[in-house]
Structures are given as C-alpha cells and as structure tokens.
C-alpha cells in the first residue's frame, strides 16, 4: 500500500499507541475543564510540534482537512474584523478569496466550499511544479484573505518557494498559511539526515500559520493533526464559542464538539515511544528509500519521475506506458499505486508515498513496477467505446437514479454493485481523465453514493 497508510515497521510503537488510544477512548474533548488530562496531553503534543516548526500557538485537530479549514476560518474572520471595506456580497458575486497553487490540497477547496470563500488557483511551473511568486502576487486582489503554499505539495512532492511567497503575502498585508500536513513532521528529519530542505515553517518571516499531520510522518493513529499560528490572537479566530442558549457552556477549538481523546492519546504515546532518535532514524531510512526508488524508476523503460521531489513523495508518468493500466497490473500483483489524473498541464501519473517501512520493501516494489510497466506496454492503453466520453459529458448525471448509473458504469466494465468484486480502474480513470474537473467531481459523487448503497 503506497498511500494512505504510514508505517514505522516497529510493532512496539504501534502497540504503545494502541494502548494509549484505548485508555483515552471514552474521554471526551468537548469540555477541557472536565478532563485535565486532555489539556496536558494537548499542550505537550502541540508543544512538540511548535518546538520543531518555529514556535507558535496551536490546536490539536482530527486531520489536515480540519487544520486547513480552521486556518481558512481564522483568516476569513480576521479579514472581516480588519478589512471591513473588502467586497463581501454574494448576491453581487463578490466573495472573499484565498490564493493558492493548483497543486494545493483539495482540503482548501473543501474549506472554501463550507466557509463561503472563493478559490483563486494559480498555475505552477511545469518543469519544477512549484508556484511562481510573481503569479501569486498577480492573483491577489482586494478580496483576498489568505495566501497558501505547500511544503511539500502532495502531487509531486516538491516544496513551494515559501520564503518568497510569504514575502509577497506580507507586502500585501495578508496572512500566509503553509500546508505542511505531509512535510511538517518529515522535512526536519530529512534535513537532519542530509537532505537539502529550504526554510518553510513559522521561523520564515510572513508565515502566519502552518498545519502538520501527526498521523502521517508522525506515525500516530489516524485523527491527529496540529495547526500552529504565529499570533495567539489569530488562533482565537479559529475557536468557536456560543452562550446563546440555556445549556452547558460551548467553547470549541475545532470543528467537532464531542470527540474522543483516543487520537490525542495515540499521538502523545507515539511521540513518547519514538522520541527524537527514533524519528531521526526513520528519516534516514525514508531518505535512503526515496533515493533508491527514484533511481530504480529512472531505470525502467517508459517511466519518468515528475520534477525533483524534495520529500518522500514521488510521482511518475509514462511515455508509451499507460499508467492507469500499469496501476491495474500492479494491483493484480498485490500492490496499490495511487493514480493521479492530469490537470493544469500536469500529466496523469502514479503516486508513491515513501515511509519508514519502505526501505525494506523498495526492491520488491521496483520489481513489481517494472513487471507491471512491461505488462501495460504489451496490453496498450485503456480503450474506450467510441463516443463514450462525449456521451458521459452530455449526460444530466444528476437526473440518473443509482440503478441507472450503476448500469452505465457496468456497461464499460466498472461494476461496483454488491458482490461484483474489485473492478479494474484503468477504464474509469481514462474516462475521468478526459473530462473537465466539474464533471469528474459529479461522477465521483455518484460513485460514492453507489458504493454505499445496499
């Protein structure tokens, strides 16, 4: 599994986190005055992240999406207090906006969707896959409330020019958020292992907030992220309080109200179990595995790594090899490679997240990728029935019921009905890749609805 799962390869660390998670399972984070252990654990976990990422004042959240959502909320509310003349009239089509690269995580789009904010997406350089500071400056207008960059961006594992973009934001009087959900607890250890990692955290002038997931390269159980603000007043903007009812006091640091302290306990225990030397050792192994993976991919005919990854996220495209077919071939051999659709001039590719356990399996992975690439070359690209893309693009997908949509999907070999088994995804990914983003999103929502329909 080359995505979604972050593994140290150390069962004793996993066991320690599990015990702590279960110990805190029934503890509720809703009221910090009721459970002092919650406050103390959060202080220690947030403090550890702040010590590594340039200081600041933090919030423990359920994941990167929630951290980013709170960062956008804090920026929106700050702008409402300090820039009352900015245009905010939905009826007239004017809304606050956030400026970010096209490679920024969709969590920003989700936050904007929920919070009534517009996304202004800036293209990236198609050689380096990094955003250009001048393009960011040109995209900022009077309604911009936040500028965001990635360290690294997920698609190609490269680090945006944080120092330069933060300076652009500061010159415009705007906050700048660094999405280090992947890199926050990885890049410092890669740097210690000898990698060249540019400054990216709260020590950079102009950076006002940063997000860091501990359930990624912190190797904590899922549900663990930290959002840091340089200014405690801005952190208060992420909070929510309500006294407009006759019940118990409501004060939330996160989007959730009632939530288990299990993830917090698991994160605390993981940090204690690994310690500085444990993370440094994992950083060295991760750096070595990433270098070997890049070297091995370069030696496989028809494959090329995109950009110059500065982290342990590696994406590769195919020349004469359909990467979607390659992914199906690898899946048949027991390996999951994460497909990424083409967008904004960036070709379709496959993504691999290298973790602490990858070094032990990197040769086996490369062997499977080489075999799968050769099999994909022999099979040729995924073939679609004539006119299928045009048919799908012209359908009123919202008007179809689930049964009709299921039949349509099954007609092109993607049978997601109960009992049908795991379909090959090359066809569906090829169809999605040929469609505009809005149509892709509609189809994905329909797939989700279909999967969860009995």
Describe this structure in words.
- Its cofactor is pyridoxal 5'-phosphate.
- One of its GO terms (molecular function) is transaminase activity.
- Belongs to the group II decarboxylase family. Sphingosine-1-phosphate lyase subfamily.
- Pfam families: Pyridoxal_deC.
- This is Aminotransferase class V-fold PLP-dependent enzyme.
- A 7-stranded mixed sheet has the order 1-7-6-5-4-2-3, sandwiched between helices.
- The chain has helices at 11-23, 36-52, 64-82, 107-115, 133-139, 162-171, 187-192, 232-238, 262-298, 323-332, 362-379, 388-394, 402-411, 426-433, 437-451, and strands at 57-61, 97-101, 118-122, 144-150, 176-179, 209-213, 225-229, 240-242, 250-252, 303-305, 313-318, 338-340, 349-353.
- The longest helix is centred in the middle third of the chain and has 37 residues, at 262-298.
- It has 15 helices and 13 strands.
- The two termini are 27 Å apart.
- By secondary structure, the protein is of the alpha/beta class.
- The mean pLDDT is 93.
- The chain has 3 domains: 11-272, Aspartate Aminotransferase, domain 2 (3-Layer(aba) Sandwich); 276-379, Aspartate Aminotransferase, domain 1 (Alpha-Beta Complex), CATH 3.90.1150.10; 388-451, no CATH class.
- Helix 9 crosses helix 11 and helix 10 crosses helix 11 (362-379).
- It is 43% helix and 13% strand.
